[in-house]
Design brief:
Layout lengths: L1 H15 L5 H16 L13 H10 L1 H5 L22 E10 L3 E10 L5 E12 L1 H19 L4 E5 L2 H9 L11 H10 L3 E5 L6 H13 L4 E3 L6 H17 L3
Parallel strand pairs: 1-4, 4-5
Antiparallel strand pairs: 1-2, 2-3, 3-6
Helix pairs in contact: 5-7, 8-9
């Protein structure tokens, strides 16, 4: 439990650029341990415990903690890419980084209401952080929309830091702020628009393009449907196939 808490804090510092003080991390660990020790359970009488188990149960309420069943279970919904509404297109963007910082790339894909690729782009940035790659992906994707002459755009990305930074006009990392002015200018040029956060499971095509960008080590490559790699084409088809099978029956 202690190792898990430290691991989560490590990931937040690397990928979300958020950090708690040592005191807060220790308090979180203490709270988690207390939750386990003073847990409650139901219907555990059928389980048999040896002498060691019974001693631990008396001292730590371990049996209750191990067989704790929440009263209100959370209904989880599978996350997937959704088609844009009628007369709109959807721009998905993402960045990839081999190490943080490390060799980085960006990717963006535009699809219409049928789920077909209108255009897309990927490219190599060089040495950058994960968030720098993601905000660069958003900038290049919006620039592509403007060059094509698209409006009515739903923008999706899997970085809550970037989405919140753009919508609230404030980024936690000052190094990312230099892109904000240009991004806001591009958003004004493609109005109306919507910009929302999507979990990575719904952003797979943009993620794949970003990784292609890292691999290519070529600065900015624009792709059109006929030039899509087999991997990108396959992911796009899977998105459409999932949506079609949902409607069967």
């Amino acid at each position: 439990m202690i190792v898990w808490a430290i691991w989560k804090e490590r990931n937040k510092r690397i990928f979300k650029e958020l950090a708690k003080t040592v005191e807060l991390v220790i308090n979180d660990i203490k709270a988690s341990i207390e939750e386990v020790i003073y847990g409650r359970s139901r219907n555990v009488s059928k389980f048999k415990f040896n002498d060691w188990d019974m001693e631990m149960e008396r001292n730590w309420s371990l049996k209750n903690a191990l067989f704790h069943y929440p009263k209100n279970r959370i209904n989880r919904k599978e996350v997937r890419w959704e088609k844009p509404q009628n007369n709109w297109v959807k721009l998905n963007f993402d960045g990839a980084c081999r190490g943080n910082p490390g060799q980085a790339g960006f990717g963006a894909v535009i699809r219409n209401k049928e789920g077909n690729v209108v255009s897309g782009t990927y490219g190599y940035i060089g040495h950058a952080t994960n968030n720098e790659a993601k905000i660069r992906a958003l900038e290049v994707g919006l620039l592509l929309c403007k060059e094509i002459g698209l409006t009515n755009i739903q923008v999706e990305g899997d970085s809550q830091i970037i989405i919140n930074g753009v919508t609230n006009d404030k980024l936690l990392n000052w190094k990312l702020s230099k892109w904000l002015l240009h991004i806001h200018s591009l958003l004004q040029a493609i109005k109306p628009y919507e910009i929302t956060h999507i979990l990575r499971e719904g952003n797979k095509v943009a993620d794949l393009l970003a990784n292609l960008g890292v691999n290519s080590q070529v600065v900015e490559v624009t792709v059109i449907p006929m030039a899509l790699s087999p991997e990108v084409t396959d992911l796009c088809r899977k998105d459409l196939w999932i949506r079609k099978t949902e409607g069967v029956g």
